[in-house]
Structure formats: structure tokens, C-alpha cells
Design goal:
The protein is mainly α. It contains five helices and two strands. The longest helix has 18 residues. The radius of gyration is 14 Å and the shape is globular. The protein has a two-stranded parallel ribbon.
């Protein structure tokens, strides 16, 4: 997904549709994409900042790398986030 200045209704609908899938991991990449998400769906954006299913990358290149590798889960930043989540869950269950 990328910045679409002339299609704001469709972009907002797409963001909400993506959010509707409660089991999928969501990857948003690129500063323009994040800015559009924040502008069109500010409440949704704020509500998912700490959601473990959402990953925000400020550089669109990171998303391209994930596509190139055909595995976003293998990227070091994503692995670190997943490991951090596991550690936090372990702390909560102690």
C-alpha cells in the first residue's frame, strides 16, 4: 500500500478492511503510507500502536526487502519485535 492522494475513501476502507482480519500480521511500510494511515484513520492508528499484529516501518525499503526475501518474519527488526513480545508474555505469566 502506498500514498494515494486522490483515493482517500478507498485508502481508508482498505485500512479498515486490513484491520478487520484479526489474525493476520499487518506490515505498513514507508513514511508516506504511515502518514496517510495516521491522517485517514487516527483513532485506528492510535489503537493499534501497541498491537502485536501490527508492524510499522518508516522506510519503504524495509518492506521491499521483505518482499525480496519472501519472508518478512526473517527480517532482524521483526525477529527482535517477536522476541520482545515473547519476553513480555513470559514476564506476565510469572
Amino acid at each position: 500500500m502506498s500514498y494515494t492522494p486522490y483515493y482517500t475513501e478507498g485508502s481508508e476502507a482498505l485500512d479498515r478492511t486490513i484491520d478487520g482480519n484479526r489474525t493476520a500480521l499487518k506490515f505498513y511500510g514507508g513514511g508516506d503510507t504511515l502518514q496517510e494511515f495516521k491522517s485517514l484513520c487516527p483513532g485506528l492508528y492510535l489503537s493499534v500502536l501497541d498491537d502485536a499484529l501490527y508492524y510499522f516501518f518508516t522506510g519503504g525499503g524495509s518492506v521491499l526487502k521483505a518482499i525480496e526475501q519472501n519472508d518478512a518474519m526473517g527480517m532482524k527488526p521483526v525477529q527482535a519485535l517477536i522476541e520482545n513480545k515473547k519476553n513480555m508474555e513470559n514476564e506476565l505469566t510469572r
